[in-house]
Amino acid sequence: MNVDDHELAARLAQRAGEQLVELRAARASTSDPKELGAAGDAAAHALLGAALAQERPEDPVLSEHGTSGPDRSPGGRVWIVDPLDGTREFSEAGRTDWAVHVALVDKHEVSAAAVALPAQGLVLGTAQRSEQPPRGSGRPRIAVSRSRPPEFVPGIAERIGAELVPMGSAGAKIAAVVLGEVDAYLHDGGQYEWDSAAPVGVARAAGLHTSRLDGSELVYGRADPWLPDLLVCRVELAGDLLDALSRTRPEGSR
């Protein structure tokens, strides 16, 4: 059966997520948290690598664990995956803010993507474009890192009257914007393409604004996968957030 790239991304993200849920349940009471996270990451990586080698043998694969398949060329087709985004959250009992990312990038654009939120029983993908829920009437809510929120973010929140919401993985935070649970996510200080390619593809399919913090385009499939900052938000908030960022973000980090 010929499976299109959108369907394949969603199916593989779901399969890896189901495996992670099973492993977490089986080993949570007997494993050290770091060992549990490492085991989950390795298992999901092996599953995704083997599946893509079988389903798309002509395409290279890029992940945080390295590359596989044919040689990768900037701008060409490449699958960009994060087998377990949010290893720390996966290792903590009861947390649901971790994810699996599967994205296909072609000509520097995310052409197909899926983000599985296995502990929430959800898979968000580009197979069907979704409409974002209407925004509530309260203060804007900005998702930020639990452990490494940018130092300038409180100033952004104060400037636009927003509330900060600490959350786990990048995929879970961007999914929360897609689902209407928060209104924006911004990150600065270090990420790679596998941290955001799939979530950004899903966010774009939902009609959200996605960019670097200076408003420039997010470009994927480059020779260097370092992509240190990004903004994902509701379109109606983009102007205010970008203006606040230009006024509040330290000059040296732009």
Automatic annotation (TrEMBL):
<dbReference type="InterPro" id="IPR020583">
    <property type="entry name" value="Inositol_monoP_metal-BS"/>
</dbReference>
<protein>
    <recommendedName>
        <fullName>3'(2'),5-bisphosphonucleoside 3'(2')-phosphohydrolase</fullName>
    </recommendedName>
</protein>
<keyword id="KW-0460">Magnesium</keyword>
<feature type="binding site">
    <location>
        <position position="85"/>
    </location>
    <ligand>
        <name>Mg(2+)</name>
    </ligand>
</feature>
<dbReference type="GO" id="GO:0050427">
    <property type="term" value="P:3'-phosphoadenosine 5'-phosphosulfate metabolic process"/>
</dbReference>
<dbReference type="Pfam" id="PF00459">
    <property type="entry name" value="Inositol_P"/>
</dbReference>
<keyword id="KW-0479">Metal-binding</keyword>
<dbReference type="InterPro" id="IPR000760">
    <property type="entry name" value="Inositol_monophosphatase-like"/>
</dbReference>
<feature type="binding site">
    <location>
        <position position="82"/>
    </location>
    <ligand>
        <name>Mg(2+)</name>
    </ligand>
</feature>
<feature type="binding site">
    <location>
        <position position="64"/>
    </location>
    <ligand>
        <name>Mg(2+)</name>
    </ligand>
</feature>
<dbReference type="InterPro" id="IPR050725">
    <property type="entry name" value="CysQ/Inositol_MonoPase"/>
</dbReference>
<feature type="binding site">
    <location>
        <position position="195"/>
    </location>
    <ligand>
        <name>Mg(2+)</name>
    </ligand>
</feature>
<feature type="binding site">
    <location>
        <position position="84"/>
    </location>
    <ligand>
        <name>Mg(2+)</name>
    </ligand>
</feature>
<dbReference type="GO" id="GO:0000103">
    <property type="term" value="P:sulfate assimilation"/>
</dbReference>
<feature type="region of interest" description="Disordered">
    <location>
        <begin position="56"/>
        <end position="77"/>
    </location>
</feature>
<dbReference type="GO" id="GO:0008441">
    <property type="term" value="F:3'(2'),5'-bisphosphate nucleotidase activity"/>
</dbReference>
<feature type="region of interest" description="Disordered">
    <location>
        <begin position="126"/>
        <end position="148"/>
    </location>
</feature>
<dbReference type="GO" id="GO:0046872">
    <property type="term" value="F:metal ion binding"/>
</dbReference>
